[in-house]
Amino acid sequence: MLAQAAKHSGALGSTRCQTPSNPAVSAGPMPHTIAWPGAAQLTNAQYSTIAARMLPLLGAAAVAARARAKSVRREQLNKRTVCFASGLEGHEISLLQRGAAEGDPEAQCMLAKMHLDGERVERNPTKAAELFMKASAQGLASAQYNLGMVLLSGDGIEKNGQQGIFFLEKAAEQGDFLAQYILGVTYMEGVEVEQDMDRAVDYLGEAAEQGVTDAQYILGSMLLDTPPQATKEKEFAAHWLTQAAEKGDPRAQYQIGRMFLFGVGMEKSAESAASWVSSAAGSGYTDAEYLMGTLLLSGTGVEENKEWAAYWLEQAAQKGHVDAQYNLGLMLETGDGVPEDKEKGKYWQEQAAAAEAKAAQGVTEDVGAE
């Protein structure tokens, strides 16, 4: 469990963000961090409910996790080996090959990476897997992680999910944060393995403790989605989402903004809400763009500014946000804070109506299929 993994103290620093009408709005100090209670705080029934609600997110997260893991394989190995493969000269490659033949696990892992990527040597996934296996047998966590990912994905070799999970768990036991993250998502998704929310939360918590932003965001979102009376879980959600938000994750910034706006897991503060939402909107996060527009429209947490409200609503409307399309259309049709443009206002309202009709048709078809 995570109980022994998280011991926090002190307050998180304040954050200053740009808003359209307020050049610098201080988000203020974040709530004091608290000791993580561990997975036992939530019942199995609550886990199942959370899983059902989170699966659309987790499906995308799992795909992104595997893609990310593949893309960072080079980065991970380069961090843990002596030199970059792309910068090796011919005689240095020979020395690396000699070291691998003599049983040096770092050399084996680096050479395996080169064979897997076809970098400076012929691409040979089978040879790569063999070298990863030799280094893994000597306990090298980076080799265990990479071997696990190769087996899990079937990258050039026969796929074997069970063995892949085995080696990822070996790496995770040694503190490999990517292995912990991948395992957390995998156990939560329940595709390669049987869904196990206890293990998912444990692995995600370990990865979150090591600063993996995606793990912090997913863990915070899970805790935020607990029943309304689970106030302590909401405070823990604020902790993890804050960790991710302070690293620039717009999804987390948006959620923290909403938590401040409605006083969930922290003291209500419209100014702090506007600051966080502004930061997320500035990163192009659609829901935050819409919310920022409504905050500026009503003067909640920021000075009322309908011109900038229309700007943010249009940003979200262009990405298909139905409520943004509808509200922007009304503003343009009536000239509310912006130059009147009935034609453009009608266009956006028609876009919103068409989207709602399409969504309603989809619901009808789903009901009919049942």
Which CATH top level class of the largest domain fits?
Mainly Alpha
Average predicted confidence as pLDDT: 80
* Topology order in helix (H) and strand (E) letters: EEHHHHHHHHHHHHHHHHH
Q: What about the largest sheet?
A: 2 strands, antiparallel
**SS summary, helix count:** 17
Radius of gyration: 25 Å
Head-to-tail CA distance between termini = 40 Å
The percent range for helix content is 55-70%
CATH homology superfamily name of the largest domain? Tetratricopeptide repeat domain
Q: What's the domain count? A: 2
Keywords:
single chain, 370 residues, mainly alpha, Serine Threonine Protein Phosphatase 5, Tetratricopeptide repeat, 2 domains, two-stranded antiparallel ribbon, 17 helices
Protein architecture, described:
The chain has a two-stranded antiparallel sheet. The protein has helices at 44-71, 73-80, 90-101, 105-117, 125-137, 141-153, 161-173, 177-189, 197-209, 213-224, 231-245, 250-262, 270-282, 286-298, 306-317, 322-334, 342-369, and strands spanning 16-17, 25-26. The protein is mainly α and 370 residues long.
